Amino acid sequence: MEWQQLLGFWQTAKLGSFTKAAVATFRTQSALTQQIKALEEELQCQLFERLGRHIRLTQAGEKLLKFAEETFARYERLKEDLRALQGRHQGRLKMAAPFTTLYHLVPSTIQEYIKRFPYVELTILDRPQRQVVALVQDGDVDLGLVLETVAPKNLTRIRWCPVRTALMVPEGHPLIGAGKVTPGAIARYPLILPPKSLEHLGRERLEEIFRREGLEFRVIMESANVELTALYVEMGLGVGVATLSPDFLPMRHNLVFLPLDHLFRPNHLVVIAKPRQFRNPHQKAFLEMLRQRPGPFQKE
């Protein structure tokens, strides 16, 4: 088995196309096909099933894919370890997180990391939570930052910081100082809520409470952006429900945040990655920098 054969197979399996894999590996499609054919002859098994214009891995192909992924991962770790012996921390770190997390919670960590590891190729992707999960599962990023309720249990999940759901109201609002906020009290005001989607389970939970108690409510605005919600709450358009970290409150001075812990379960922002992902020194260092933030940091 040759290295280039294994690489060609891995790209084909990952991209699901001989044509795309040929482009990715800088070789002709016929050359790639011949390499995979030679690999099948050596292993004495079929690796792909051809279904019209599409291909899919056979059971043997699935096993070889796992072997290839582990082999390439070990090779990358070896290169990083050898560079570390020479005092040159190089490699790649690719991460994804939603806008609010990237904007408010990680800039200082990123800034420090770049200073400490100038030779690491860092890539940051601004993506919604579900896309972050998909990128991690597909191996397109090394780590992601999402809410724990969104993170699949088959991924490594490391608790980073707690978050809580709160009602945003402008200063002077009648609900301030009125004690525990009830669903009926919330429903009396125009609401600024996230869009209906699996990204925003808090809205589903709130509407479920309203329906259970027979409450009518009006959504005056939908926004997935906490800062935008805060702006319009401050303007007096309505009241907003948002999931926030204690380390971050929107950059507005005329807002009050009323806790809704009695209506919503506690949650956490978590670091997610494939199992056994954090092996390279520069990856471990990034995790350690995040670990230094206030709040619990626990691996599941």
Automatic annotation (TrEMBL):
> What keywords are annotated for this sequence in UniProt?
DNA-binding, Transcription, Transcription regulation
Q: Which residues form a coiled coil?
A: none
Pfam families in alphabetical order = HTH_1 (PF00126), LysR_substrate (PF03466)
Which part of the chain is the HTH lysR-type domain? Answer: 1-58
Q: Which GO terms describe its molecular function?
A: DNA-binding transcription factor activity; transcription cis-regulatory region binding
User: What is this protein called in UniProt?
Assistant: LysR family transcriptional regulator
Q: Which organism is it from?
A: Desulfobacca acetoxidans
Transcription regulation listed as a keyword: yes
- Name the family: Belongs to the LysR transcriptional regulatory family.
InterPro entries the record matches: LysR_HTH_N (IPR000847), LysR_subst-bd (IPR005119), WH-like_DNA-bd_sf (IPR036388), WH_DNA-bd_sf (IPR036390)
Q: Which Gene3D superfamilies match?
A: Periplasmic binding protein-like II, Winged helix-like DNA-binding domain superfamily/Winged helix DNA-binding domain
Q: Kindly give the PANTHER family that the UniProt entry links to this protein.
A: HTH-TYPE TRANSCRIPTIONAL REGULATOR (PTHR30126), HTH-TYPE TRANSCRIPTIONAL REGULATOR CYSL (PTHR30126:SF39)
